[in-house]
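Title: [Solved] RNase H type-1 domain-containing protein 3D structure

Original question kept below for reference.
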Amino acid sequence: MDVESLSTPFGLSGLLEINGFMKDIIDLDPDSDLWRHSKQGFFKINFDAAFDNSKNRLCSGIIVMNFKGDVLASKTMVHDNIPSKFAVEAIACLQAVTMGRDLGMKYVEIEGGSLIVIKKVKNPNKDKSAIGSYIHDIKEQNVTFYECKFQHARRAANKSAHNLASERLKMGKNA
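Solution (posted by the thread starter after getting help):
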């Protein structure tokens, strides 16, 4: 799958806008809650999800960046009839892993806002919770990478992915 087919309908101008936002926060204090570079040679995949309670709809937002912070691809996906809020972030994490795999990336840092999901993915034991099947799928796909690091990111550090998901949820379309 090529990067173009995964980009938002905003096209190049949208990617440039996201790049501009990321450049503004890259040089800030590394001990802050804001976004940080990945190691050289790694790609960073940020994911977040927005949930509409009234319609049981989820939208995940995924942004792929190189170690310089340049946005290489982004994707949103809207899902209807999501059974619980608990599954929302697990689905978004699974989509982030799938996107990295589909783009042929081998060294990735996957960063998301749900500490619970990140801890479950890092735990070597089988997850028997309501999101266990998503966690299992994430771990299964993880073997396609030479190295994959899962990291928790606070909302401020994951703002771009969250905003991407929130805006797409309002529009109600996939991209």
